[in-house]
Amino acid sequence: MSNKYEKIENEISGQTQDRQPGFENEMNPKPIFDDENYKGSEKLKGKTALITGGDSGIGKAVAIAFAKEGANVAIAYLDEHEDAKETVKLIENYGVKALSIATDISDDENCEKLVEQVIGEFCQLNILVNNAGKQFPTKNFLEITPDQLQETFSTNIYSMFYLTQAALPHMSKGDTIVNTSSVTAYRGAPELIDYSATKGAITSFTRSLALNLVEKGIRVNAVAPGPIWTPLIPATFDAETVEKHGDSNPTGRRGQPAENAPAYVFLASNDSSYITGQTIHVDGGDFVGS
């Protein structure tokens, strides 16, 4: 276990936020989004990436890793303006261009406008990372309301259809799509049934879209994170649950966003040229299976 990850785990105490998807600037300690030992090697030089939920958490870590690899990066976020401003600054520190766009991707028209803005700024789009998501813990299945179901599905999976449809006319052979699934799609989660259902849909979406686009030379893959220290955790759970988050993991701790980023770089780059329709599990051994 890396000392820095062990150290931050010991510093995390129970904390909550009152709304989703959460603010990274209110977390204490803040997640580790940048691994100083990760050195870029121009794997994405000349590429343009769009990352939803890119202001914080896993999206932020991916944005910084992409920047290290030479990609220009656009991040989409809801309204966490302070987090987004910091992320843009960090991206630009690596000598590439950055763009932040505040929008609600659960709306199809917003997704079309988002892609238009990216194309208007960078004139190309080579990597789409569908990462944004929400979750609403509900112990009693009968208490999952139609409104909650609609919000969860609209944000987590409908947005992937909308954004991908908007992006594809601008993508070509060699370009890539990476979706964020979850360990909950594979092992289930009794209090996150609607969320887990969307993540299962994302896995199937990834496999099917990969087959649909294979003749175009556009690869589609996914990453399925386990318990990761992101703003979504304190924005979702009570203080006691936040404190114990990741305790049952085989590693004995939760993961950090920076530990996910290399998987996204791998799937976005030519290193994974013979891989499509697959999911990389970054979960500390939380899920073992097919």
TrEMBL record:
UniProt keyword annotation of Oxidoreductase present: yes
Keyword terms, alphabetized: Oxidoreductase
Pfam families, sorted: adh_short_C2
InterPro entries, sorted: NAD(P)-bd_dom_sf, Sc_DH/Rdtase_CS, SDR_fam
Taxonomic superkingdom: Bacteria
Assigned protein family: Belongs to the short-chain dehydrogenases/reductases (SDR) family.
Protein name as it appears in the record: SDR family oxidoreductase
Species the sequence originates in: Psychrobacillus faecigallinarum
